[in-house]
Amino acid sequence: MRNECHKRTVQCQFCGKDFLHETLQTHQYRCPRFPISCPNRCDPTKIPREEVEVHVQELCPSATVDCPFRDAGCRHKCPRFSLDIHLEDSVKTHLTLTCDLLKQQEEQISQLCSALHTITQTTEGVFIWKISDYKAKYIDAMYKSGASSKELVSPPFYTSRFGYKACLSVFLNGNGAGEGRYISLYIKLLPGDFDNILTWPFSLPVSFTLFDQSPEPATRASLTESFMPQAGWKHFQKPAKAVESLGFGYPKFVSHDLLKTRDYVRDDSLLIKVSVDNSGLLKP
Ligand SMILES: [Zn+2]
Ligand SMILES: [Zn+2]
Ligand SMILES: [Zn+2]
């Protein structure tokens, strides 16, 4: 037997790197390519150390895995190799769970939508409301019963920073004196955060504009109506908690005949502006 040198270089048979003979054994406790058994003892074949983690997480048939319907509420866990059996046996349960989850999510979505809708825009006195799908909404207003198809209400807005809260209300098929032949347009004051420090009644000049959306700016003939709230008009008193009443405005804002002309309706949409003249506002 040869007396070999401890300091001679040898190659690790697993990773192929060179080591001093005396350190080889220590290296192999950590060598990334050193074959070890799967901790789940799934297979007599050994696996390189660096691949064990991926093996257990993604491949090992003996590893315990969650049912893929876990997020829908199935608490089942089993070895990976028997998951298919569980899936086949539980189709009905899984469908029911998924269906319930879907309903929950639908509810959440509609809550989010309504939260989004109540975010109040702050304006500098000008709010422009786009009414899209005009035709369908007009037909609904004509033929559907129910207040929500007769009256469309804009998202709420503040007339200035820390100002009055308001929204627009439109009846595409008219109401009151305008019913059936006009678009009626109103402004409604809503209970706002700053009401207690604002001046009442609301007395700032208001104007409504229906835009002519002609591509030629020079030929546009937008329609505007303005008014000055008078002391004593009940619509401009400090609004109570629930606002059910009609706003203030024009039952005969624009006739349907006029609306068909020019580009008041373009891309099946109307653009309506309300301007509040803040120059006389006593800032809180
Ligand atoms: Zn090695
Ligand atoms: Zn394994
Ligand atoms: Zn399951």
Automatic annotation (TrEMBL):
<keyword id="KW-0862">Zinc</keyword>
<dbReference type="InterPro" id="IPR001293">
    <property type="entry name" value="Znf_TRAF"/>
</dbReference>
<dbReference type="GO" id="GO:0005164">
    <property type="term" value="F:tumor necrosis factor receptor binding"/>
</dbReference>
<dbReference type="GO" id="GO:0031625">
    <property type="term" value="F:ubiquitin protein ligase binding"/>
</dbReference>
<dbReference type="InterPro" id="IPR013083">
    <property type="entry name" value="Znf_RING/FYVE/PHD"/>
</dbReference>
<keyword id="KW-0677">Repeat</keyword>
<dbReference type="InterPro" id="IPR049342">
    <property type="entry name" value="TRAF1-6_MATH_dom"/>
</dbReference>
<dbReference type="Pfam" id="PF02176">
    <property type="entry name" value="zf-TRAF"/>
</dbReference>
<feature type="zinc finger region" description="TRAF-type">
    <location>
        <begin position="26"/>
        <end position="83"/>
    </location>
</feature>
<dbReference type="GO" id="GO:0005737">
    <property type="term" value="C:cytoplasm"/>
</dbReference>
<dbReference type="GO" id="GO:0043122">
    <property type="term" value="P:regulation of canonical NF-kappaB signal transduction"/>
</dbReference>
<dbReference type="Pfam" id="PF21355">
    <property type="entry name" value="TRAF-mep_MATH"/>
</dbReference>
<keyword id="KW-0963">Cytoplasm</keyword>
<keyword id="KW-0479">Metal-binding</keyword>
<dbReference type="InterPro" id="IPR002083">
    <property type="entry name" value="MATH/TRAF_dom"/>
</dbReference>
<keyword id="KW-0863">Zinc-finger</keyword>
<dbReference type="GO" id="GO:0008270">
    <property type="term" value="F:zinc ion binding"/>
</dbReference>
<feature type="domain" description="MATH">
    <location>
        <begin position="124"/>
        <end position="276"/>
    </location>
</feature>
<dbReference type="InterPro" id="IPR008974">
    <property type="entry name" value="TRAF-like"/>
</dbReference>
<feature type="domain" description="TRAF-type">
    <location>
        <begin position="26"/>
        <end position="83"/>
    </location>
</feature>
<protein>
    <recommendedName>
        <fullName>TNF receptor-associated factor 4</fullName>
    </recommendedName>
</protein>
